[in-house]
Design brief:
Largest interface: A-B, 96 and 94 residues
Distance between the termini of chain A: 39 Å
Strand content of chain C: 25-35%
Largest sheet of chain C: 6 strands, mixed
Radius of gyration of chain A: 23 Å
CATH class of the domain at 5-96 and 170-247 in chain C: Alpha Beta
Helix content of chain C: 25-40%
Structural class of chain C: alpha/beta
Strand order of the largest sheet of chain C: 6-7-8-3-9-10
Number of helices of chain A: 11
CATH class of the largest domain in chain A: Mainly Alpha
CATH superfamily of the largest domain in chain A: MetI-like
Shape of chain C: globular
Structural class of chain A: mainly alpha
Number of domains of chain A: 2
Chains: A mainly alpha (279), B mainly alpha (331), C alpha/beta (252)
Oligomer: heterotrimer
Order of helices and strands of chain C: EEEHEEHEHHHHEHEHEEHH
CATH topology of the domain at 5-96 and 170-247 in chain C: Rossmann fold
Amino acid sequence: MSPGGRRLVSTSVSALTCGAAGLVVCPLLLISGFLLYQGVSAINVDFFLHLPKPVGEVGGGVANAIVGSLIMIGLAVLIGLPVGILGGVYLAESRDRRLPWVLRFVADVMNGVPSIVFGIFAYTVVVLPMRRFSALAGGFALGLILIPIVLRTSEEMVRLVPSALREAGLGLGLPEWKVSLRIVIPAARAGIITGVMVAVARIAGETAPLLFTALGNRFWHQGLDQPIAALPLQIYAYAIAPYDDWHRQAWAGALVLITLVFLASLAARLATRGRIVAR
Amino acid sequence: MAADSLAGVGTADGLALPPRAVSRSRRGVGDRVYRGLILASVWLVLALAGGLLLALGWESWAAIRAFGLRFLITSHWDPVAGEFGALPFIYGTLVSSLLALLIAVPLSLGAAIFLAELAPSWVRPPVAFLIEMLAAVPSVVYGLWGIFVLVPWLRDWVQPALARTLGFLPLFQGPPYGIGMLAAGLILAIMIVPYITSVSREVLLAVPGSQREAALGLGATRWETTRIAVLRYGRSGLIGAILLGLGRALGETMAVTMVIGNRPEVALSLFAPGYTMASVLANEFTEATSDLYVSALVEIGLLLLVVTVAVNGLARLLVWSVGGPARGGRA
Amino acid sequence: MGDGIYVKGLRAWFGETLVLKGVDLTVAPNAVTAIIGPSGCGKSTFIRCLNRMHETVPGARVSGQVLLNSEDLYASGVDPVQVRRRIGMVFQKANPFPTMSVFDNVAAGLRLAGMRRKSRLQEEVERALRHAALWDEVKDDLDKSGVSLSGGQQQRLCIARALAVDPQILLMDEPCSALDPIATAKIEELIHDLKKELTIAIVTHNMQQAARVSEWTGFFLLGELVEFGVTKEMFTTPGDKRTEDYITGRFG
């Protein structure tokens, strides 16, 4: 090919890949725009404070769904946070060869398991023995999803703590566990928290694992061992129903959900930007 | 004895040595408890993973015993009669995922190359950020948009156009419902593009600069440099990125359920409704009346688990081969 | 008459920082010109300006003239890709393409230039490998990966890769700094042979190496060309005090 031809190919490819990047980003703008347009009209104070109205009636809100989501996220964090952080600390501090590799591999693979499969696991381990659908089961399923995410991000954050800090602690005569707990982990605290935020943003949007664990509820839940509503579940139920008003509420719910998720991810990115400069 | 005498040494000079602050056994206890807690967490995670496999295997045993390999190749799904053949779901999962890959891979790799090699530096951070945001959108939101925007668009514009131009192919025959395999493939493509793009971008960024220099020194254009130095070097990592996208597509539940039509049939046309493994779980799990029904569904879940674990495992190994096991937690 | 490079008033920047402060220098045809100086003096930057590699770094800039015989390589409308085709480069650390075989590595530049026929490629690859004094060692293993060779062999592979496209000039940026003395000696021997047909400019931090292989030497300090002359004379009777101090080891 002539030199001019090669240059043309190079420029064309640059243009093509630029176009690809543009196409890739498009859906985000399309979806956000559409949600804003459709959902904004249904957002009002009622939406946040009231329970769903009976079938066919217009109005009502998703208060129980929001509360339900918060409760199950809380349960998930309770279950997953300690295990995830300690596991992440292990990966960052361990000098062994095999066990860390296995744990890292298992965690990454778990990250890729479809969330509905975790729902099945929660079903067999919590719902079946308890003989009922419950917030506990939903929280358990979400916790399982949370663990590998928190684990890997905690590992990254603890790794970023300069070893000089650890050595200073050891040099002062502090035992290893105190150095980890009092010096290293607190230094990584901000990063770990943002990692948890990202994980929470992810599980806040999960629907599939809740379908047969929390089940959903059109009213306030009667206890943690009872079925409970969740925002993504409600969105799904409204979306596939035949009522226009429910559709509008689905938009509104989706708008709320997507806003929270975006804010959490944005905050996480901003918070860690100063840290990961070394990359 | 010698330790005790140490306590009094030097006091005359004012050089007071501190008494033995921490006894040997106490220091050991703190460390041992800490170590114990950490190892307990590690083993707990591994146990949960193992438990997952075991629980699914246990629950699906009844169906495995009843149907054996027939389960994978029969199309007859009749809960009332107790006949369960999972072929339509396997078919639907594979076809929708492959369609998604076909659409997503060229776009993702193109965007990744653009971001890693060819874009001016002021463009890179915002675009990379937007792509990360896309990855954070929940599946049910994609599904919602799919039902009310994508499906009507397909039904009213795209499918009639395809039927007019390419209707002689069995792929594009049948009534244009909008809902169906094409919609599922498209929405999956939109959902997996951010993953493939960001992992590919990281793989490309991990290629050492000396490789680029070698190509440039030979008189290669920018694209040629990318082609022979970067893409070749990062080849296995890029394949891993694609596999990660595939793994994602295989397990995607809500968005697909909302646009695929949920009909358990094997059909050649992309316009036809279909059903995926994840979708049937989402739709029928709470309606499963008999134990065998539940067991059959759990077996589908087990299949899904095994396939996604295999695909993801392979993908991770490939990605690690280029950049090292450092990255994680996001994709 | 071979090809020479004539540099006039060359200035180079990294962003706002001026790193080469106006250099005039001749790389004589069919001879070896050595560029010496302490770390950070700009010798690598200088040589990378000769084949327009400097500008591939974001924010880097060049002004002045670099003439290949009578053509200004920095004239507007000149394609840097073509410049790099005619001026080859060998880098500090050998960088063969690891996913390509020995054969494919050497053929890489040829394939980029459009050569397709297997027989022609085989001829040229053998010619280049012989030229780089590597043929006998690899002729039975042409399909082995480029990185399966030893360090010194990899560097000679990179030299072969650069020679395959028949450049007019060969630039070498500290090619032996990562090699052991035996591998270094082999490459210096190679340079002796190559200069009969090729014009070579070599950056080196090893003064003895400069004295061994070059006819001309340029001494750089803090972005300036302090002194330039016949190698033998520079090392025995340096004109500038700074040159003398560097050569006698008083700094650097």
